[in-house]
Amino acid sequence: MKFYLTSTVTDFIDAPIALVYSFVTDNSNFQWRKEVKDIELLEDSFIEYYKAGGHTLFSNIQKIENEYYAFTMQHKLFIGEWEGKFESFKGGTRIYFQEKIYIKNFFLRLIAPLFWNLKHIQQNYIIALKQEIYANK
Prior knowledge:
This protein is α+β, with helices and mostly antiparallel strands.
């Protein structure tokens, strides 16, 4: 059985579900994400290149307009899965994001929970997402 680092976050964004979903799934509009240098769009996948160096390949699993978005991740250090669920709630959007990663290197897998805070990464993404949505609402 593989040991995954897993993090789940839920939040509320005071904006219509279609707007929230479009920001999360539009990989050509990434400039609001401060850690991303560039995104290369492929047929059913995309590659994120990071300002600090390195890149990750994301392959789309499923998209259900304004409801669900899921993809796999491949990086030199890990593989993983991400899913986002979206629901209308009190005039805005409730989001549920879950990320699971499997560290490939055994030693790194042992110490990863000490330095790899997925929840913090997800929370930073949501903060930036909200800022961008509220600025474009």
